[in-house]
Amino acid sequence: MPIEVAPPKYVMIVNAVQQRIDDGTYPSGTMLPSETELIREFGASRPVVVRALDLLRQDGWIESRQGKGRFVLGRPGGGQRQRERRYGVLEDDERAESTLLGAGPATATPRAAAALGLQPGAAVVARRRLITVEGVGPVELGTAFLPADLAKGTGVGGKDALPDGLLRHVASRKRVRFDHVTERISARLPTPEEAGLLQVNAAEPVLTVLLSVCDRTGKPLLGVDLLLPPSRHDLEDVYPLD
What is the pTM of this model? Predict the structure, then answer.
């Protein structure tokens, strides 16, 4: 069983700010506390705070205004600005820089159940892929989960590559519209198998990202459990974000 470890401090800051935006502590349109205030509150260095704020900006939670500071936009999705971060396991042509590790019927793990709003052990269809970038190496190890009824007739549980990407493939065949994504970030040590696939040290924590891809009403239609090597968030130049 993977050993749970405390998430990196910048992840703690990201999660705390997201929670405060969600609960109204930081209302939309207001200025965030300064870097100095966040450094003092979280006991973090300036580079750690800057990294956390940059991730929040990339994901559309906040915006920077030259000479004024950083301001709250609110939760990304719906009528707000589109999230900028992208994940290959959802969007990329599976014929390129991708290895399909397994696909087929499965029972929902606790994390898959949380992403989909199901009971653990519910019937789902899983699709596990490793994404690599030439000259860089593995950048994502992810398992996508669809409720069994939604997956029926899509071929997601089969071995054939999906040239249009998972999201477009499901949307076109089931006539559903994916509206927004919610994201939960944490960290843990990889299993030996995961460390081998991601080519990382088994003693080094990896980021975990749990995605819920929802329709316009907020109903989760697709869940993804991702592992990212520690360098993943530093790869924008070679693995561009939308």
Answer: 0.63
